[in-house]
Design brief:
The protein is of the alpha/beta class. It has 18 helices and 14 strands. It has four domains: 115 residues, Rossmann fold, CATH 3.40.50.2300; 170 residues, 3-Layer(aba) Sandwich (Rossmann fold), CATH 3.40.50.300; 65 residues, Helicase, Ruva Protein, domain 3, CATH 1.10.8.60; 43 residues. The longest helix has 31 residues. The N and C termini lie far apart (55 Å).
Length: 461
């Protein structure tokens, strides 16, 4: 591990001091502390840190998120520290593109693992920038993308941006996370990434994590030895071993149980696996492409997805928009499916009427491309003329009546009310004997951050 010069931006001295000790024990150099954005900017000017740990809530009117925007402009990688892991904070932090996020209270191994991931991601960012600069010097990319991306239909700015992103990342081994709603065509993007990569002659192994029972997913991914468990009559080679030298696609990674997420993290960090019931480690060389239709920021906030794993797979994110946000792709997609199914079923159906095209364009497509494909298949099978004149669209789903009960509170509202009640009993005392933190059985620093996050203002009587 290469030692780094690190600045800590944290307004709690004890926590900053503890963090400094952890980093220095690991061989890094801490070039100073700062408790506010103003002080941090001064330290950055005089010390030129290579990495910054930044708390979200700081002294003064500016927050760590304000500082993060400045760090991004200066190309200084940073990692967030916060006792607040609610979705709103994660979304605001997400917009600044951090290299990691640590939720307090954190452990030494979490800090070092997160920093290791951040260093890995930053070095890969630099590698990709260097590679893309060389590509630009060697000449422009082909203007016609259709031939480079067979099976991906569309000319909207949104889909062309996605294809540009694939062009950027495909030549490198960086992990890719593809996000988007169900039915948007994420698997097609994976095919393109693999085909345009140096690994194209090696296996592309696809795993639908949502389709594997939780009790079998470890064996499915990493394999097992004979006799490892009841029913293990033979040795089984897992998906990671099968993908050695090539690419593994982990679809619906948000469905992976948390205990297996730990093992996935090890694969990404150490590039080795252990079969279930095995006594030795097996080195593997795979590129990981993952996909999900879940909001992983919300999953992390709710404790269902590990933050350290997220930042390992989030090296190069690609978001594919839903079909309703790229309506100009509806017609070419519909015409493609029409030609395909007419040929497949031996039908003479060859086009849509103007009315039918208007209907297709106006529909919201909650099932995205998959829904469009199935609908066109159904219409080709039932068509009696060469032109499809009318589209039989599904009826809009009726909204469920909203719950009008006024006594239902969110978890955040209940937490705020509970803390206020404890503060009243303690007469506003947060720390020390008889303080609110003691009654709530949480560290005073954690309670202080909860008070800030929930907007609790204590007024002394």
């Amino acid at each position: 591990m290469t030692a780094r010069k690190i600045l800590i931006v944290e307004d709690q001295f004890i926590e900053a001091s503890d963090l400094r000790q952890i980093l220095e024990r690991a061989g890094h150099k801490v070039c100073g502390f700062a408790a506010s954005v103003k002080a941090a900017n001064e330290k950055i000017r005089t010390e030129n840190p290579e990495f910054v740990f930044v708390d979200i809530f700081l002294k003064g009117t500016e927050t760590g998120i304000d500082l993060a925007h400045q760090l991004r402009e200066q190309n200084i990688p940073f990692i967030y520290l916060s006792a607040n892991s609610d979705q709103a904070t994660l979304e605001a932090a997400r917009a600044t593109h951090p290299y990691g996020f640590l939720v307090k209270p954190f452990r030494e191994r979490d800090i070092l693992a997160t920093l290791d991931i951040a260093i890995y991601r930053h070095s890969h960012d630099l590698e990709m920038r260097s590679g893309m600069a060389k590509t630009r010097q060697s000449g422009p990319a082909p203007a016609n993308k259709t031939g480079r991306f067979p099976g991906i239909i569309g000319k909207s700015p949104e889909i062309l941006h996605v294809l540009d992103e694939i062009d950027k990342v495909a030549p490198f081994d960086s992990a890719v996370l593809i996000t988007g709603e169900t039915g948007t065509g994420k698997e097609r993007l994976v095919d393109a990434i693999h085909r345009l990569s140096p690994r194209k002659g090696k296996p592309l192994i696809k795993v639908n994590c949502a389709a594997i029972p939780p009790e079998l997913i470890e064996s499915e991914l990493f394999g097992h030895e004979k006799g490892a468990f009841t029913g293990a009559m033979d040795r089984r080679i897992g998906k990671f071993e099968l993908a050695d030298g090539g690419t593994i696609f982990l679809d619906e990674i948000g469905e992976v149980p948390t205990e297996i997420q730990v093992k996935l993290l090890r694969v990404l960090q150490e590039k080795e696996i252990e079969r279930v019931g095995g006594a030795s480690t097996i080195h593997i060389d795979v590129r990981i492409v993952a996909a999900t239709n879940r909001d992983l920021y919300k999953e992390m906030a709710d404790g269902r997805f590990r933050i350290d794993l997220f930042y390992r797979i989030h090296v190069f994110p690609i978001h594919i928009p839903p079909l309703r946000e790229r309506r100009e792709d509806i017609r070419p997609l519909a015409e493609h499916f029409l030609a395909h199914f007419a040929s497949k079923f031996g039908r003479s159906t060859s086009s849509f009427s103007t009315k039918a095209l208007r209907q297709l364009s106006a529909y919201s497509w909650p099932g995205n491309i998959r829904e469009l494909e199935h609908l066109i298949e159904r219409h080709v099978l039932s068509a009696t003329t060469a032109i499809i004149d009318n589209i039989d669209l599904p009826e809009p789903t009726r909204k469920r009546p909203e719950n009008t009960a006024t006594d239902i509170k969110s978890i955040e509202e209940m937490e705020k009310a509970h803390i206020l009640e404890v503060l009243r009993k303690c007469h506003g005392k947060v720390s020390g004997a008889g303080g609110a933190a003691e009654l709530l059985q949480i560290p005073p620093t954690t309670l202080t951050y909860k008070i800030k996050r929930l907007g609790i203002v204590w007024q002394y009587s």
